[in-house]
Design goal:
Oligomer: single chain
CATH architecture of the largest domain: 3-Layer(aba) Sandwich
Shape: globular
Strand content: 25-35%
Strand order of the largest sheet: 8-7-9-10-6-11-12-13-14
Bound molecules: thymidine-5'-diphosphate, magnesium ion
Number of strands: 23
Radius of gyration: 26 Å
Length: 452
């Protein structure tokens, strides 16, 4: 006999209630409750929830060493972000906007694995997948495609075929028929993921789940899913640029500091080993408003170009528009420039762009932003072989930043002649490097060095 229970679930955070609510008491969003019916029947249940531990284990058992159970995908950037490879018995969630390249990335990653892989496709037909595989020149005899969306049937096949890695593309298309909510609702997503987790643990399989991000930038079925899985990896990038960044936002088996950079090309994603060179490739030398800075993405330094355009606003309201940089941070920097260097910023439009679709979220780029703005105001180009790093304080002072050594090394490696930095201790001796290090105390001093 089945028991039918009705409940209302917030589609944003998974909060459950027995009645419909306009506003979610848990996450505060409006109109997110939808009705779900839960039928509890005895069908395919993988695990009996009995208490099963029958023995004790030595902690320094060789078999429990993480690296012995990692499966390498052979895509270096991907393995690095995972912390060294896929872990058997764990779930990785790959999240990103539709069309960003998640299916391509995962298909490429599993195509190098030497043990049996099953790729479940709920979004694309067998023909579409094989078309993609031939475009990516994938030939792997251990890779099997399963076009199916019913989780019970999928799990039956998994149990029969005993793969070592499985891919679910995407979690939004998979459903369990014990639950009446349509695929993609939070109830279905959460329940399916929990089932997959049980499967992963029981059979020691590495599970990769692909999930779309909702419009608000949340991973659909967001927080609820994040606790269940072991690793959450975000695949992002600007649609109009070909760069894609892979970033771990949660990792039970590795650090969340690493990022992987890819470029989407005609025949799939290519790893980018020297990102700075690519981000600076289209730079126009000798034009005003352009300054190069060194940011830290994950644990790697990357050189990027900051572009500013300042124009008189006439009688209209001065506009501030940024891409890849925080608008509030820009307002603060403009106030500092106005107060400390006496430029009338309120009568100027300021447009700021970080070239290549890169997002900057560290204060170390402040000085480059200020210099680019002033370079545009004065219409004096900055030296194209000078790199600029440093945080700008409200008093117009230049403050110390993290990882200065790495930033200097990267600028040196790419042939920059000079780097302008805060006055701070440098832990490596750079006297033997060709790059000249100029330490500055104030914004005024820095501008003098960069533009005069
Ligand atoms: P896809 O992996 O389908 O994205 P997702 O699974 O995240 O929805 O990739 C979609 C885009 O990638 C599509 O617009 C076409 C482009 N693409 C290439 O540019 N080169 C390629 O080799 C492939 C396979 C896709
Ligand atoms: Mg896809």
């Amino acid at each position: 006999m089945s028991v039918v229970r009705k409940k209302f679930v917030c589609q944003n955070c998974g909060y459950e209630s027995i009645q419909w609510l306009g506003k979610c008491p848990s996450c505060g969003s409006w109109n997110t409750f939808s009705e779900e019916i839960e039928k509890k029947t005895k069908t395919h249940q993988i695990s009996s929830r009995k208490h099963e531990v029958k023995s004790i284990f030595a902690l320094n058992n060789e078999k429990l060493k993480i690296d012995s159970i990692r499966i390498k995908t052979g895509i270096k950037e991907f393995d690095r972000v995972l912390g060294g490879g896929l872990i058997q018995g764990s779930i990785v969630l790959i999240a990103g906007d539709p069309g960003i390249g998640k299916s391509t990335l995962v298909l490429q990653a599993v195509s190098n694995i030497e043990s049996k892989v099953i790729y479940v496709t709920g979004e694309e037909s067998l023909e579409q997948i094989s078309l993609r595989a031939s475009r990516l020149k994938i030939k792997n005899e251990n890779l099997f495609i399963l076009p199916e969306t019913n989780l019970n049937l999928i799990l039956e096949i998994f149990e029969k075929e005993a793969p070592s890695v499985v891919v679910i593309d995407s979690i939004q298309t998979i459903y369990r028929d014990e639950l009446d909510g349509s695929p993609g609702t939070i109830g279905q997503i959460r329940e399916c993921t929990a089932q997959l987790m049980e499967f992963a643990k029981k059979y020691n399989v590495a599970v990769i789940i692909i999930g779309h991000i909702t419009k608000d930038g949340l991973i659909a079925g967001p927080k609820a899913l994040e606790h269940i899985v072991d690793t959450v990896i975000q695949f992002s990038g600007e649609k109009n640029y070909s760069f894609r960044i892979l970033r771990a936002i949660k990792n039970r088996f590795g650090s969340t500091n690493e990022i992987g950079i890819f470029e989407m090309q005609e025949n799939g994603l290519k790893e980018v080993e020297n990102p700075s060179q690519i981000f600076l490739a289209e730079r126009e030398y000798g034009s005003s408003g352009s300054v190069v800075t060194s940011i830290i993405e994950g644990t790697r330094p990357i050189l990027v170009e900051v572009q500013a355009l300042v124009t008189p606003s006439g009688y209209g309201m001065a506009q501030r528009v940024t891409t890849g940089f925080d608008l509030r941070r820009l307002s603060i920097l403009l106030a500092v420039i106005e107060k400390r260097l006496n430029y009338k910023m309120s009568q100027n439009n300021v447009f700021l762009n970080i070239a290549g679709g890169v997002e900057i979220d560290e204060p170390a780029a402040d000085l480059a932003v200020c210099s680019a703005i002033i370079s545009s105001i004065k219409d004096i180009p900055a030296d194209s072989l000078t790199c600029v790093v440093g945080e700008v304080g409200l008093g117009g002072e230049i403050r110390g930043i993290s990882n200065l050594e790495k930033r200097i090394q990267e600028a040196n490696k790419l042939g920059f002649k000079e780097i302008v930095t805060p006055v701070q201790k440098i832990n490596i001796k750079f006297s033997d490097l060709p790059i000249k290090i100029v330490q500055v105390k104030t914004l005024k001093e820095a501008i003098k060095e960069i533009l005069e």
